């Protein structure tokens, strides 16, 4: 039974080369090394590393898990220590950080591709580097020169890890309700006191130091999100010469016992007057969080794809081993592999098609991040930032919902063997379940999409995207009969999306509860449509390569068929989603609470 991971480097480079524009990124300041040859070579190499070094630790992480010693220490599985040391030495965690900060200066697009393979290899393990990435961004964008000099190099290399410390028992989705206190000390530092829960990689034994980015309130801070400040709270204080000093005054009180990602320590942390260093200015913590949120949400969205991809591989392989029943057309004396049954093919094609659509959407969002941060002209940066802002809630929520659904399908392909732990596919399903919850629940993402993103530029951002999608119609028309079903069904989906956007604009301001009631189906409708648009572009690119006689014929033909499958069998869902978007909230509140 296969539990190995085969990095889908060919699929990844197809998206990087034909959906995003790596060539143009390589022309931007700071990305000089991002030529296709270097990037392709790096991805091959990274894939090999993830498959050989990280993937074998996935099952161990699940079965052994992280262990709290009853006092304040957390031990990770033995296999993680060796893998983490090799990960740091390999430099893969640093490839998308700026060269000036000790990184390899490649675009985030390439960093995301490496992150996909790391996350597929072991999602629980990948969370350490992912949270470190948020801490790095906090320092890069908002830290002082001194703070950058003290912490950045070691976080970028992975020698130290970072965390994001927001959540408290009474402050989850509503971050503004947090109560942790930050009292100014005479020396310019702050004394941090409070209890934080659910902190990913909040304590562990893989790195010499852990740099916590903690949100807390100073005395007299205004209530809500306007009164939140951000502090660097290192596990060990750092001496002026860079050596480690005293242990800071907080501890990991306990670990959560979770449905999945057992290898990732999720920590309850008690801060007892810990020394904290203010990042930027007081009361600006939420603003700083927002600058990191897009990339963190993109990384969590990527978890949906990464887990779905690994589960898909396992299901595909299982379907070619398991013999059961007789497929139509098979000889009377024969039993068939389950992959010969249409319903099993349906499940495999659904996984494959959604995976490919998710990859396009996520990588295009990463490309927008790169342009927004590195393009020369202000207009280009602003346009890319807007595109990223618009797509981020979809990248996060659509992909993580699909992550749960696709891992469930992978389990289904295994039949009863999927439900027992022995095959390992159940782990993917359990691991995937957290992603719709953390980094802003998917319900909150849907609200963000309809309440903040659709109104951007008076609706200009969504109108432009719809315009771009509609413009593909003429190109698909020229492509002829082979892509006719894509043209027809994409056109219908874009019309459904347009109607949903118009309804939101007309009803949202006057009847906000109606709009909020339709937010989640709206996000689904938009994700499904944008995914279909990207796959249509993938089909066109594959067709062009075939016409030029370039590339692997079977691979490219499969890309076209996958896009047709998506258009014919997944995209029509938008027609059913539209009335769900516009149904309003009446029925939701008619049933009294005591009858729910
Ligand atoms: C394994 C794990 C790791 C985590 N890692 C971290 C970490 O590293 N750092 C950190 O700070 N936090 C972390 N978290 C916390 C996580 O971000 C929160 O759990 C999440 O934000 C949801 O908050 P909550 O659990 O309080 O749920 P609640 O906010 O209580 O939400 C419960 C339900 O109500 C809905 N809801 C809430 N408010 C609204 C609203 N206004 N409108 C509509 N629906 C609403 C939600 O969508 C959800 O369905 C982690 C959590 C877990 C489980």
Walk me through the structure.
- By secondary structure, the protein is of the alpha+beta class.
- Helices cover 57% and strands 11% of the residues.
- The strands form three sheets. Strands 3, 4, 5, 6, 7, 10 and 11 form a seven-stranded mixed sheet that branches. Strands 1-2 form a two-stranded antiparallel sheet. Strands 8-9 form a two-stranded antiparallel ribbon.
- Helix 6 runs antiparallel to helix 7, helix 10 packs across helix 18 and helix 16 runs parallel beside helix 20.
- The longest helix has 36 residues.
- The structure holds flavin-adenine dinucleotide.
Task: Write the topology of this structure.
Blueprint lengths: L8 H10 L3 H5 L9 H19 L3 H7 L2 E2 L5 E2 L2 H13 L17 H14 L1 H20 L2 H13 L3 E5 L15 E4 L5 E11 L9 E7 L12 E6 L1 E3 L5 E4 L2 E6 L10 E13 L6 H35 L22 H33 L3 H36 L2 H4 L5 H8 L9 H12 L6 H20 L4 H24 L4 H6 L1 H29 L5 H18 L2 H9 L4 H5 L6
Parallel strand pairs: 3-6
Antiparallel strand pairs: 1-2, 4-5, 5-11, 6-7, 7-11, 8-9, 10-11
| Average pLDDT | 96
Q: List the ions, cofactors and other small molecules found in this model.
A: flavin-adenine dinucleotide
Query: What is the oligomeric state here?
Result: single chain
Q: Major β-sheet, in short? A: 7 strands, mixed
Number of helices: 21
Q: What is the 3D form?
A: globular
Poorly predicted regions are none
What is the CA-based Rg, rounded?
24 Å
Number of separate strands: 11
| Intertermini distance | 44 Å
Could you tell me the strand content as a percent range? 5-15%
Assign the structural class, choosing from mainly alpha, mainly beta, alpha/beta, alpha+beta, or little secondary structure: alpha+beta
Fraction of helical residues: 55-70%
């Amino acid at each position: 039974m296969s539990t190995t991971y085969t990095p889908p480097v060919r699929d990844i480079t197809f998206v990087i080369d034909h959906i995003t524009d790596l060539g143009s990124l390589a022309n931007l300041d700071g990305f000089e090394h991002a030529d296709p040859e270097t990037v392709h070579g790096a991805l091959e190499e990274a894939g090999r590393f993830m498959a050989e070094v990280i993937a074998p630790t996935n099952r161990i992480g699940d079965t052994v898990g992280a262990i709290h010693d009853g006092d304040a220490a957390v031990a990770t599985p033995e296999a993680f220590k060796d893998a983490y040391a090799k990960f740091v030495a390999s430099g893969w965690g640093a490839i998308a950080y700026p060269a000036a900060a000790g990184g390899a200066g490649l675009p985030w697009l390439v960093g995301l591709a490496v992150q996909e393979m790391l996350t597929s290899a072991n999602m629980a393990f990948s969370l350490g580097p992912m949270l470190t990435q948020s801490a790095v961004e906090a320092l890069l964008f908002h830290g002082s020169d001194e703070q950058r000099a003290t912490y950045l190099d070691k976080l970028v290399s992975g020698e130290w890890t970072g965390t994001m410390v927001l959540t408290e028992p009474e402050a989850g989705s509503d971050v503004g309700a947090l109560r942790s206190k930050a009292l100014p000390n005479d020396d310019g530092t702050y004394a941090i006191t409070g209890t934080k829960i659910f902190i990913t990689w909040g304590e562990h034994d893989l790195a010499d130091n852990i740099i916590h980015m903690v949100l807390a309130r100073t005395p007299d801070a205004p209530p809500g999100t306007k009164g939140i400040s951000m502090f660097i709270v290192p596990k060990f204080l750092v001496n002026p010469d860079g050596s480690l000093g005293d242990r800071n005054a907080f501890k990991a009180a306990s670990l959560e016992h979770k449905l999945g990602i057992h290898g990732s320590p999720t920590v309850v942390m008690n801060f007892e007057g810990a020394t904290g260093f203010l990042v930027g200015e007081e009361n600006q913590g939420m603003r700083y969080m927002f600058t990191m949120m897009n990339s963190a949400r993109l990384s969590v969205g990527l978890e949906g794809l990464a887990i779905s991809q690994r589960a898909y591989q396992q299901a595909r392989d299982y379907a070619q081993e398991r013999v059961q029943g007789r497929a139509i057309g098979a000889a009377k004396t024969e039993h068939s592999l389950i992959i010969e049954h249409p319903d099993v093919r349906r499940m495999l094609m659904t996984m494959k098609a959604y995976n490919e659509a998710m990859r396009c959407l996520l990588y295009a969002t990463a490309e927008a991040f790169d342009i927004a941060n590195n393009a020369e002209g202000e207009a280009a940066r602003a346009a890319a930032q807007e595109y990223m802002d618009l797509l981020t809630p979809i990248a996060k929520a659509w992909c993580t919902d699909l992550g749960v659904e696709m891992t469930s399908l992978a389990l289904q392909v295994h039949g009863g063997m999927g439900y027992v732990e022995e095959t390992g596919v159940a782990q993917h399903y359990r691991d995937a379940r957290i992603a719709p919850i953390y980094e802003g629940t998917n319900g909150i993402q849907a609200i963000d999409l309809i309440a903040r993103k659709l109104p951007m530029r008076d609706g200009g951002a969504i109108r432009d995207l719809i315009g771009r999608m509609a413009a593909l119609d003429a190109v698909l028309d020229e492509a002829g009969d082979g892509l006719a079903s894509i043209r027809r069904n994409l056109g219908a989906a874009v019309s459904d999306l347009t109607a949903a956007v118009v309804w939101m604009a007309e009803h949202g301001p006057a009847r906000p509860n109606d709009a909020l009631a339709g937010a989640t189906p709206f996000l689904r409708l938009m994700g499904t449509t944008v995914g279909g648009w990207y796959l249509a572009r993938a089909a066109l690119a594959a067709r062009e390569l075939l016409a030029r006689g370039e590339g692997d014929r079977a691979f490219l033909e499969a890309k076209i068929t996958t896009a047709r499958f998506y258009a014919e069998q997944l995209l029509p869902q938008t027609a059913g989603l539209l009335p769900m978007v516009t149904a309003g909230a009446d029925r939701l509140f008619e049933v009294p609470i005591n009858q729910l």
